[in-house]
Amino acid sequence: MIVELGHFALILACLVAVLQSTIPLIGAHKRWPGWMAMAEPAAVAQLLLTAAAFAALTHAFVTSDFSVRLVVLNSHTDKPMLYKVTGVWGNHEGSMLLWVLIVALFGAAVAWFGTNLPPTLKARVLAVQGMIGLAFILFILLTSNPFLRMAVPPFNGQDLNPLLQDPGLAFHPPFLYLGYVGLSMTFSFAVAALIEGRVDAAWGRWVRPWTLAAWVFLTIGIGLGSWWAYYELGWGGFWFWDPVENASFMPWLIAAALLHSAIVVEKREALKSWTILMAIIAFGFSMVGAFITRSGVLTSVHAFATDPERGVFLLAILAVFMIGALTLFAMRAGVMQARGVFSMVSRESALVLNNILLSVAAFVVFVGTIWPLVAEMAFDRKLSVGAPFFNAAFSPFMLALGLVLPIGAMLPWKRARLGRIMRALMPALVLALAIGALAWAMQSGRSALGPVGLFLAAWLIMGAGIDLWSRTGRGQGRLARLTRLPRADWGKAVAHAGLGVTMAGVAAMMAWQQEDIRVMRTGDEVTLAGHTIRLDEVHEIEGPNYLSTTATFTLSRGGRVLGQMHPEKRVYPVAAMPTTEAALDNGFLRDIYIALGDRQEGGGWAVRSYYKPLANWIWGGSILMALGGFLSLSDRRFRVAAGARRQVQGVPAE
Amino acid sequence: MRRLILALCVIAAPALAVQPDEILDDPALEARAREISAGLRCLVCRNESIDDSNAQLARDLRLLVRERLVAGDTNEETVDYIVARYGEYVLLRPTTRGANLLLWLAGPLMLGAGLIVAGAYLRRRAEAPEPETARLSAQEEARLRELMRE
Question: What is the pTM for the complete model shown?
């Protein structure tokens, strides 16, 4: 009964979405306040209805209702409660429902918090958001209904993929979706502004928080996914340039570009058409991501529920929204004239360069991702594009970005003198070069990757520090002023430093990782980068819904015991799947990583151990980037001054 | 059973890819083998190198690579030997031959185009006349007057 109510709520949400995407649009065109005002209750109703549908599905999972097909396929009574709940979105149908819920959530958020928006713009934004919701609700109802019942309910379910039964992965999709779908908000704002025919500084200010929020969520989501891959997949890889990873990485890059170009729109009334284009493309990439994951066109490590019919439907959604938005864009290009004037050397130019580097980097990832498809269809060649290509073709853009970032971040608006900035940054440059040289000297005959990475990291982190310090003015009390700087300044510095921290981690891990593979019997010892690892014992343990072979290792350094490590091999009997649970000894400067392999015929166990320098910096940097975004979001300037235009429109001529 | 096989080669790759018994005694040769196998695709897997994969076929390929190296082949000869048998699909780093040139040049070309367009835009912006500041609508003028009175 509850399941049918959920299904019914989703159908109602679909009908509400039809109203939401038409009535306010007509109202805004004809200036009928009543019709425009319809947008807000519709957005809230859509949220309530999709939330009811989602709650109904969650209820089915929590109570293990095996008359529902989706629950049978993805749950089991023995599964811990946490994974019963996360199992709701650990599959195609449920995750689409989560997607739709988040679309509605963002729509309702605009209805609630967008009180400073002019009524016509608000009505149009909500109408476009309603169209997006409508498209995806139709997709669920017509191709991927999560509420289907079984004719003959089985006694128990088939269990969720054991790899998904992990805290890191359980919360990876919701964050990722908050990011993907958050970009639908910027898309709606862009399309609404195009319909309105007005893109100005105020628009830049309104759209920026949504972009920032989406980018922060994407950062967290990608970080979680990468962290999960690191400890779960058993060899400590953190990024595979897999099509699905790329699908999340492209919107992230474009959102980062959009974030910066919207600043130029807001402060200087330039780059308007570019920013609108980025806003459209960012959501386009989000939908490309959904298409890649769910169509099976590009085989990947974690494509799930691939189905051609769904793929075609998603492609149709993508085509309709992109062609519609881009046609509108072409028609309205004339109204988006830049007004700000600035010289070649200025903050504006630096942000243009930032946008070129980020968007071309995203383009490289895009071309590399779809190239196997293009090569097969157009040139009849079956080929692969893997990590070596991306490392070679993508990294130079990040290198260039890292090099110019600290300089660009300090340039003043309109007109700047490079010499002054360079003098201020000189200590950071010298120290960073020294750190790079030291790293170069300490390693012998290996690639330049490590030293260059550390140089960039030091340059970015210290550059961010100098930027912040330079804002405190001169004379007495600089420290006190530092704490009173706007949160946006802090956010910028923290996020930029976070990028440096991540770069250091990636470079160090790729350049200086050490590995040892061998057969170990109990009592055997391995020495790895100054650490001693001893295998003490191996025994069998029974978990709630799995069987585990757990080893005990003792990690020591210079005779001092640092701790015990317990890598496991698990078998999930219901899903008939083995997984590895690697053991990690986390440190600030290094991780020690042990994965337990198979029992060998001649006795003993295959053991893989790794020394991973600066591993945690990768995710530490991601956390810093997300934190920087949050700090900027909480800046009072977003809230206080954002109402400027509405008052203008609300005041009657005296 | 199908799920198990998939699990074994596709995602799970339980722990060990390179097995202890595969490792060559000569560390220099082994390092070369690792370098080569990181660039070769496991054919039955999704987007994994044979160095990372746990599939049986990946193991066979790893052993083949080592066999060729021990027989005295250079890195290029070893890779060519495998490409000759399995096609260019095994190469994770696509060649620069033929249409693939487009793939490799896509980034640099786009960067060049972007810089040219941006350069032209920036020059226009630098030479553009300052917009007159008083471009307020009548409504905005009224609002401004009101604010000034307050």
Answer: 0.90
